[in-house]
Design a protein that fits this description.
Length: about 100
């Protein structure tokens, strides 16, 4: 899991929230628990990942896609698109539109 592009402030809040929910007094305690307990790792992951999803969530992405990628893709007779990490379907519907 790569969280480098996530907001630092958001991740800090999420870690602090996870510490409270998982009854850890320090980040070191949380780290130790996560390293030695698969369930703790799964729980922490639920706190760290951002489960937001909405239609056309990133407008600049869709604009760039429409202007730079779609003209190239139009040269193919058909195509298949894989949407990785799709939460609840809005990404797929946005892409289909």
């Amino acid at each position: 899991y790569d969280f480098r592009d996530y907001s630092e402030a958001s991740q800090a809040r999420r870690v602090l929230h996870a510490m409270v929910q998982m009854d850890c007094r320090t980040v070191s305690e949380l780290q130790s628990r996560v390293l030695h307990d698969e369930e703790a790792f799964a729980r922490l992951l639920q706190y760290l990942t951002i489960p937001t999803s909405e239609m056309f969530r990133d407008p600049s992405y869709f604009l760039a896609l429409r202007e730079q990628v779609v003209p190239f893709l139009k040269t193919y007779p058909s195509l298949k698109i894989w949407i990785a990490g799709c939460s609840t379907g809005e990404e797929v519907v946005s892409m289909a539109i």
